């Protein structure tokens, strides 16, 4: 996984609440068997009409806004567990999503792909939207080491929380599977004590 | 001492912790990993890239459900991308030694329907699947939840998952349900009260006399939609209804193993005095048939209520999203939905496609006929449900009532196959999500119970089923 340390970039504002992963990447685009290319269909039905023409009123089609940070309304990434949503956002070029609240599964999926979900207070989120709408060139700085997001040229800064283990993974580009593979002895020791495995052991053999 | 008291969730979680990472998540052992064609290919590719295999092939089971056609399943899948993805699953299962109930297999079906009906889902387990409706299995008193594809790869590689322990919530439904009110109405009612994000970060236990009175199928419908209020999962303490359901199923423990299992399962309940981070209690008598009017499952009302107005919203910040949602649905604040003409009715999905759902619908439509303009599709959750329905003659009743009984799959719940609702059309649906475009680009979904769906198909307009029930 790519390391994440600090980023300073302009942001794309999307002040809509409860954005579900069906909007981020509709189900009909989930038929690919690789992780690449989902960015083309990010927010497909908000971004394009049914003739595949860009919708002028959607922010990703607004030439004023671009950048590596997506700023979105509360409860971002709810609904389906599809990791394709995180892949699509990252593939499009975003490195950070800022919201006042994230759905659990999306948050894990983002972290597992080096896409940083930054949860801020509702008031700070409102401030971010105000600043970005007032000046499209507003630069945001997201510093993972310090766990802060700040608005360049102002003294506005907010601390964000992140699980320390996940922070270490992101800062170093580590991956959960490498960590778990080193725990094999512990996993095998656990299996010897497992109530479930003892109950189904016979049936499992028959099944096999 | 209060600290000795554990919730059901805590008992199962604690029994599955392999180790805890300092300042980090727990390493949780996963008893059963269910996979399907959509969220597994990149995980298999990840294993190949690492040069490793599936760590415990006996703990993983695959089926094809999301992409499959619900007509002519004996023929090759016509849609090339769907066929490719389903073939890829077969190829991966062969290569990695994973059991697959693919198309044509008598056990094939929606992943959350087949686990319980085959006796694979048992109390006290941990179950994961790359699908957010994995919470369905919680009806048996299991910790079951949806995961992303990186996590699917993690479980394939190690049979473990890194997870931070969620907070706990208990939702009690007390009292008797009224006639015509199903468990789907209970969960739509709960989500409308708690909101679509209101249980994020929590694992929910459903309790109370109304929950205890429900069949396993009805309990599964409730646990299924836990994710629709953001919950990591939902579960119900196992009881005799649970044990009776499990007994005799294909892969369930048998004889002495069953006796031993039931003795253990009887210890799986929340101790008196155990505490939850949050607790809610609702009165079953307040629940009526429910329907959603908006584009998330929290936007539900009693079927006779009017759509709320912006002034009814608790939070200022939600106004723009609320208005966007009504604009998409083509509704006005304050409208009533009763008598609104409907052209599409979908009965199916991992929420409501079990034999009990089909029986309820068949019993209700027997001797009636759908309205001429309605397209009424009914999709069984599995091959076993389909065969059982045929054995009971439900297929004939449904056919005579003008309903089309399809072959099993996820179907029009998410429109990955050909079963889509056209742009701008309303679909009264027993599925779990009414998101924009969920049932096809531009489709407008209204979530209801199987009885409300059946009543709507018969009259051709949104109907309070209670008015059609005979004494």
Task: Provide structural commentary.
The complex is a heterodimer of chains A (208) and B (471). Chain A has 208 residues and is an alpha/beta fold. Chain A has 9 helices and 7 strands, in the order E-H-H-E-H-E-H-E-H-E-E-E-H-H-H-H. Helix content of chain A is 37%, strand content 16%. The two termini of chain A are 36 Å apart. Chain B is of the alpha/beta class and 471 residues long. Chain B contains 15 helices and 19 strands. A 5-stranded parallel sheet of chain B has the order 5-4-3-6-7. A 5-stranded parallel sheet of chain B has the order 17-16-15-18-19, covered by helices on one side. In chain B, strands 11-10-9-12 form a 4-stranded parallel sheet. The mean pLDDT of chain B is 96. Classes of the chains: A alpha/beta (208), B alpha/beta (471). Chains A and B meet through helix 4, helix 6, helix 7, helix 8 and helix 9 of A and helix 2, helix 3, helix 5, helix 10 and helix 11 of B.
Helix content percent band of chain B: 25-40%
Give the topology string of chain A: H per helix, E per strand.
EHHEHEHEHEEEHHHH
Overall mean confidence score, pLDDT of chain B: 96
Q: Strand order across the biggest sheet of chain A?
A: 4-3-2-1-5-6-7
Largest sheet of chain A: 7 strands, mixed
State mean pLDDT of chain A (0 to 100 scale): 94
CA-based shape of chain A: globular
Major protein interface: A-B, 66 and 82 residues
Question: What amount of the residues of chain A lies in strands?
Answer: 15-25%
Poorly predicted spans of chain A: 203-208
What's the helix count of chain A? 9
The quaternary organization reads as: heterodimer
pLDDT < 50 stretches of chain B: none
CA-based gyration radius of chain B? 21 Å
Looking across the biggest beta sheet of chain B, what order are the strands in?
Answer: 5-4-3-6-7
